[in-house]
Each structure stands twice: as C-alpha cells, then as structure tokens.
Specification:
Number of domains: 3
Low-confidence stretches: 311-319, 325-341
Strand content: 15-25%
CATH architecture of the largest domain: 3-Layer(aba) Sandwich
Shape: globular
Helix content: 25-40%
Order of helices and strands: HHHEEEEHEHEEHHHEEEHEHEHH
Number of helices: 12
Length: 345
Amino acid sequence: MENKQEFMNNISFEELNLRHINLIINLKNNVYSSLFYKMAIIRTFDDFKIFINVLENIKNKCFIAIKKNKIIGFLFTYPLNEKKTCIKINTPKFIDSKLTETSRKLMLELIRKSIIKTDLKTSSWIINAEINNLELISCARELGFQPLQELKIWKRNINKNNNYNNTFDQNKLNNFERIEKSNIQKVLNFVRSNESIIIRNILDFNQKDIYKRNDKFCGSLIIDKEILFTIIKDNNYIDENVYSFTRAIFWDERITLILEDTLENIFKNNSESLLKTNSDDKELSLLLNNLDFFEVRSELILVRNNLIKRELKSTNKINNSIESILEKINPQGNPFPSPFPIIKR
C-alpha cells in the first residue's frame, strides 16, 4: 500500500490552464467543471497577455500568403537593433514549388506588406540578397531599396588536413580580449568608426546591441590599447551561425597570426560556422584563402530608409536636386538609400 510520502511524490502541482481540458472532461464529479472551465480560460488569457507583451517588445513578425485556405509563402522580419528602428526582412520562402510563374508577385507583396505593417518607430529596412538572386534584388529595388554594400560569406574547408587540436592553447590569444563590461563601449566605438556613416546611422547600435552579439568566441585584438580587429556574432541570420569581422581601415600585419588562432578557436568547436567579411577587403580575402577558407556566397545589402522621403516632402526641398539633399543629410557625400513610396493595396 502506498504510504503518505509516496503518495505526495506522485502528485504534481500546476496552475489550471486550457491544456488541462482533457482532465476536466474526464472528471467523474461534474459539480466543479464549470468553475474549472472558467478559471482555465482566465489563466490561459493571462498567459496570452504575457506572450503578446513579449512579442510586442521583440517585434518579430511572420507574414504569410494564403490561397484556398493554405499557406503558400511566408517571410520573417525582426529588429536588428535595440531601438527597433531597423528591421531585417528575410528572403521570402514559398512552400509550393509550382509557384514559379507567380513567385515574383508574391515576393513583392510579402515584402510590401512587411513594410506597411511596421510601426512609426521603424525608419529603416534591410534585405540581405544573394548576389545571384536577381528576382529578390529586382523586387527590393522596385520597393525603393538601394544597394549599399557587398559581403562575402566564408566557410572553412573541412576536407583538407586542417583538423583542429581539441586541446587548443588559449594562451595563443593573449592579446585577444573577450567582450566585457569594461571594454564594450570601446568595442562599440571601434565597430561604429569602421562603418560608413550610412550604415552607422541605419543600424544605430548601442552597448546592448553589441552585448546581444557576444559569445565565448567573440572579442577584439587589442595591442597597446588599440583595437586591430573585432569579431562578433551576426544577427542577420536565423538558421546559420555567422561571425562578423571588422577591422580598421589599414591592414596591420599583427592581425595575421592572432586571427589565424582566433578562427581556429571558433571553428574547432563548430565547423559549420560562417565568417562574414566586406567584399572590398582584398587583404583579408587573401589571408582566408591561405587558411583554407572558401567563399560560400556573396550577398548584397539592400536598404530602404525614410529619411530622404521626409526630406522630399519639405516644401523648400521639393525643387532641389537629389544630390543637394544627399549632401545635407550626409556631409561626407555618401549616397544614402532613397525609397520610393509604398502603395497600400
């Protein structure tokens, strides 16, 4: 016979919720069933409110295309910065492979809807398009996105005899400092200072953004209190583990050895990780080739921003040339992405 302790050990205590509906249905004594249903519904709605508040803070969204009560396509959007002013639009996906003839129209409308349905706080949208995805690039350009930067995505060639030593010596990374509270502002300043003023203003990173992109492999090479390069996680990708490399404008030979050891430390733990670099960085591309990395793909960053749109609406700017508007927005003269208006349908 079961004693009291065994009896108590076999009991779990949970707050009543609609997930317990089978238990309510199976009650032999129905006196309390109506009360149970009421309390279960109340608790479930409380859970929904918490869930919705979390989603509101995160701003992750999924837009779908429906035909005959079936989902035929979708895309995800999510903020790239803590202020939620910059939204990443992922490449639209199609569930039905027979949609090739209408895929462009579906892609265009999914992207259009994702822009329309963002709140007033949002001022920028970013799309990472593979360089050979002409359909996506064409749709983005039609909706006012402008090409901003070309990137390379690299992977380590694991088929060559470059297996990593599982007992990696961390002392090799003496000058490579992990990102911590003591240096996070310095890392933020370095990353921002080595971006174009356009990207800097669009991404609008703060310390929390750097912290979210930090893990045990991230950090900076610091020599004589000077940062030579930084590696952080890249949140542009949902289903890939991508690290972003940033270095100063001028190549420093001190980078070579430490970078090799840093990449060894990353890729010995996860050979499927990827590294993102600027396509214009010829010195780094050469070094990565020598380290048995190969280019997985090239991507084009396309950006849509509301800043010029607001400028064009100003009465005293309407007759000015686009070049003069750009000069006032960006004194350095970089071509800021200029959107066309999205037409609501």
